[in-house]
Amino acid sequence: MSIIVKSLRELCQKNVSAFLLLNNLRTVENLRRLNRNNLSIINRLRSTLGQSFVLVQDGIEITELPWVVKRLGPSEFMLNGKFNVENAPYDSNELRLHDDHDLAFARMLQECNSVKQVFQLLEVPGETVTSQSAAFALCRICSLKNKGGTEDIDSFIRKAILNELCDTVVKDIKHLPNQTLISLVRCCVSVNNYEQSFIESVNEEVERRIGSSTFTVSDLCELITCMSESVRSDVNTLKMCWIHLGMKFNDINEKNIVEVFQVLRNITPEFRYMLRLADKQLQTCWWKLVAKDISSICKNLCLLNFYSGRTLSSFGKWMYANVHTLDDDSMKHILGMYSHFNYSDSNVITSLEKFISAFSRRTARGKNPPDLLNRVLMSMAANFCKRRRLISTSILDSIAADFTLVHQSGYDLREGLSVLKSFGQLGYIPSSTSSSEFFSAAEHWTQQKLNRIPFSDLLELLASFVYIERFPVNFVDRVLNAQIKDPIVRQRACRHLLEIQASYLLEFPTRRYLSLFEKDALKISLTWMDGRLYKFHKDVGALLKDLLVSDIANECQIPRNTPHLINYELMIDAHENVAGRDSFARTGDGRVALLLMMPECYSNGWVLMGEFSMKRRHLVKLGYAVVMVQYELFSWKNRSTTEKINYLKSLLTPYVKLK
To answer: Taking every annotated instance into account, which residue ranges of this chain make up the domain RAP (predicted)?
Structure first.
């Protein structure tokens, strides 16, 4: 017998627990081998031994986990449909609908604006107050208290009336409709004025109806929502609601799936598997949903941070077929989900292009007021294009036209920054018909918001302009002559500061005196590389040693007054040989800058992003011949060492002699 089984036996004996150990198909006769001192205890608990077992599998190849099984009689287990008369299963046919008297009483309760008026209304003969009327009264008192009512209901008379209402409800609680019972649960968890016996009666009735599958999916969602919002809720009842909702996942359809995703925001890690169940049911009905339902599910998926490729793809198809039914609010939530998960496909892009273009045309015709929601949508579209490195002329031109039209009144600080940064970072200039007007509007907006823009965001904004050779002359003195004292701001903004400085030194035709920042004085690292880029860098360096005639390649060089990292710098003499720095100073003819380009350096269509386009432009002005090694071609298309060497040879042959 293994140590684990022996420990389990000793634990059972120590706690005087009724047990039966079955080891490698051993029979009950093994009980006779137990310690004689425990035989009397086992005899006294013989009836319990007939009901409870501990099944243990012992051996090397274990295929099943131990089971703990307990037998319950018909009156103990409430979900088997064999209760005694007192605990009979709930029959949904016994539900009583509200009669005219109850509805009239409920209308009178709704007209009460204070707890005092409710108690005055209850001063009627007792036989006229049914269980449903009493439930209505309890719910109305709870509602008034939750709305900030300060009236005391703990006085002797009011407490007696409240207890009488509770007793009236409990007497006929099994005939109350589900919605009324859920309202009573909400009262119990939100107001602390009820007797514990009443709360237990309500929870027991909820458990009976859960066991009889009386609650629908919508009822369970509402019940879980109200119980999850209070610490007074019964934890076991709440767990049973979650379990029962998971058992009814086949009943989830287009009518209640929105409620399911809303209630899943209250889910605990124990029941997070239900997200997969809900997502599975969503695939059976997504094409039947309307725009409002889609936007609600998208919002909840973002809050849950639940990524589902199937759902994202399916919603893209839905957008393509139903883009004409979307409004600004729905598109905002859908686009927010795709931006959150950094996902897009052709359906999403096509739908967004159609929607933004139509929206821009309506704005140009004066049919769309420049409200905040529309501007948020435009900034989200610009941010989506930036994150996905997507250059869509229809989207970006529409955003530029809208910004030009309503920039003074429509765009707040955050929305304006998001829109303006995206053009430079993508390296895209709007069409020639609106380019000058757009940049003029951008200058006016920046001047208007200048005192409100944080310094680091201002540097990033101005750097995005110089990416596309639009020099912010009116603002350069503010940033290049500023003293950056905050170390956190310096760390985030120094790269943009050096980019602006390099652009003015190399590209601005009539440059003025500037307070130059030395990169060493800024105390930042410009040679840092992440893991994937670092491995790419080392692989290329190892192959260069086999290619070059002389092993002289300067690694990780940064030209003065620029932040541009050159992975490998080659000094070429007049005979196209690689020379050292001293030889190059005497007989040098040219320099080659070998740049390693990752996928994030390009937008769609293999167009360089704004930052890297400026980097190449600056290095050319400094006299470098720029050679760009693409990660995809080096690591994926050319997998073998020979293929990689041939790829590098094709890039370097025009500039340098190779082996």
So the answer is: 594-651
